[in-house]
Write a structure and sequence with these properties.
Elements lengths: L7 E5 L12 H9 L6 H4 L3 E6 L1 H4 L8 H16 L3 E6 L2 H8 L9 H24 L5 E6 L1 H5 L1 H16 L3 E6 L13 H11 L4 E6 L16 E7 L19 H13 L4 E6 L5 H6 L6 E4 L4 H10 L6 E5 L1 H10 L8 E6 L6 E5 L5 E6 L4 H7 L7 H5 L13 E3 L1
Parallel strand pairs: 2-3, 2-6, 3-5, 4-5, 6-8, 7-9, 10-12
Antiparallel strand pairs: 1-7, 8-9, 10-11, 12-13, 13-14
This protein binds adenosine-5'-diphosphate and ligand VHF.
The site of adenosine-5'-diphosphate has 26 residues, from helix 3 and helix 10.
InterPro entries: AceGlu_kinase-like_sf, Asp/Glu/Uridylate_kinase, G5K_ProB, Glu/AcGlu_kinase, Glu_5kinase, Glu_5kinase/COase_Synthase, Glutamate_5-kinase_CS, PUA
Subcellular location: Cytoplasm
Main location: cytoplasm
Length: 408
């Protein structure tokens, strides 16, 4: 095997199934000698999205593997105990539904798959609820579709709900809303969905648990000499030639995991790909142990997120701020409240990107707005305590929350 370039390092697979990430110490030492970080970014991550794939969760296609679920839940509860926040993205609905319906194989027609997903989702969530209940942790089912993470107004709603659940100590369990999606708009694989959730909640890191030890330099199912990539810059072009399609049970294979890692990196999230079959994998991976594949973002999370927000091209309106509001935004990094707004221009919807200008018309910031233009006009110059009286409902107290605001 060609030893890695500075950008990525591999470790030789030792047996028919999977090698260990430490098998080839030379590679690891080479990285250390070159000063490559020893996963401190991963060990320091506090907000995690953990995605569990069908290939891992399902018992060779015969429904859900309750033992795997039980062990995962033990590990996720321990991760929470360590003070981390966790959102779980779990596949498995279709596989569970097929068994519950007594079918012998996976159907191909979309409506059959959707029916199986609807049946299996109950089984899936019930299994998690029972297992998390052992730790007194409540679970919440979140089914997301394309629009929920792409359309700006729904984006804010999904973000608000997920972060509230985290604050409440609940374990959100996310899956694609398979029942209503059409072929054109479905994610299909949950890797993409997990990455979008990582963007949505500003996760520090994404852990993709699957049936392989990580990303190999060729599909280990077909190439027994394949070697594990231990770490690599997520954008390295060499990776594209390595990632292959999924197995019978999973959907996207490593192709979608690599794409997901690149999506997650847009908001600064690190990605780890690891085998959910290895003992204690969640604890080991999340504490920075050298397991699986680490796809590094190489960016400061805050900068990455701001770049991502700033890159949204459609800016259908703007708000003019008084001098006090401009100062607070610039100097204290605070949210924009309606009281600091003196005028509203354009026609925007909740969740749109709007420009924030000073009295001279210079753009000082831009961000995702919590109210539409008509509501913003009614709220301008008013204290947040008056929002409920003015609009007839109690919305967010900020016009633009600081997390959704980029200073220019
Ligand atoms: N380069 C690669 N390294 C590791 N696995 C790969 C690679 N290319 C393709 N694969 C396949 O990807 C599969 C995992 O993806 P997938 O089946 O979609 O699982 P999941 O349901 O966990 O998302 C592995 O079982 C493996 O056969
Ligand atoms: N939403 C589907 C998951 C699709 C799927 O298998 O995704 P993946 O595990 O990423 O290959 C389900 O719950 O069955």
């Amino acid at each position: 095997m060609t030893i890695s370039t500075w950008k990525w390092s591999t470790s030789t697979r030792q047996d028919g199934r999977a090698g260990t990430a430490n098998d080839n110490n030379d590679n690891g030492n080479n990285d250390r000698d070159r000063g490559v970080s020893e996963r401190s970014e991963v060990a320091g991550a506090r907000r995690w999205v953990v995605k569990v794939g069908s290939a891992l969760l399902t018992n060779d296609g015969r429904g859900l593997d309750q033992e795997v679920i039980g062990s995962l839940v033990d590990q996720l509860a321990a991760l929470r105990q360590r003070g981390c926040e966790v959102v779980l993205v779990s596949s498995g609905a279709v596989a569970a539904g097929i068994v519950r319906l007594g079918w012998s194989s996976r159907p191909s027609a979309l409506h059959d798959l959707q029916a199986a997903a609807a049946v299996g989702q109950s089984v899936l969530v019930q299994s998690y609820e029972n297992a998390f209940n052992r730790y007194g942790i409540a679970t919440a089912q979140i089914l997301l579709g394309h629009d929920d993470v792409i359309a700006r107004d729904r984006y804010l709603n999904a973000r608000g709900t997920l972060t509230t659940l985290l604050q409440l100590g609940v374990m959100p369990i996310v899956n694609e809303n398979d029942t209503v999606v059409t072929d054109e708009i479905r994610f299909g694989d949950n890797d993409t969905l997990a990455a979008l959730v990582a963007n949505l909640i500003d996760a520090d890191a994404l852990l993709l648990l699957t049936d392989q030890q990580g990303l190999f330099n060729a599909d280990p199912r077909h190439n027994p000499a394949a070697e594990l990539v231990r770490q690599c810059d997520v954008h390295a072009p060499e990776l594209d030639g390595m990632a292959g399609e999924g197995g019978v049970l999973g959907r996207g294979g490593m192709v979608t995991k690599l794409r997901a890692a690149r999506l997650a990196a847009r908001s600064g999230s690190e990605t780890l790909i690891a085998s959910g079959r290895e003992p204690d994998i969640v604890q080991r991976a999340t504490s920075g142990e050298d397991v699986g594949t680490w796809l590094r973002t190489g960016k400061q999370p805050q900068n990455a997120r701001k770049q991502w927000l700033a890159g949204m091209v459609r800016v259908p309106g703007s708000v003019e701020l008084d001098d006090g509001a401009v100062r607070v935004l610039r100097e204290s990094g605070r949210s924009l409240l309606p009281v600091g707004v003196v005028a509203v221009q354009g026609n925007f919807q909740r969740g749109d990107m709007v420009a924030c200008r000073d009295r001279q018309g210079r753009e000082v910031a831009r961000g995702l707005v919590n109210y539409n233009a008509e509501e913003a006009r009614r709220l301008q110059g008013k204290p947040s305590s008056a929002i409920a009286d003015i609009l007839g409902y109690r919305g967010d107290e900020e016009l633009i929350h600081r997390d959704n605001l980029v200073l220019l």
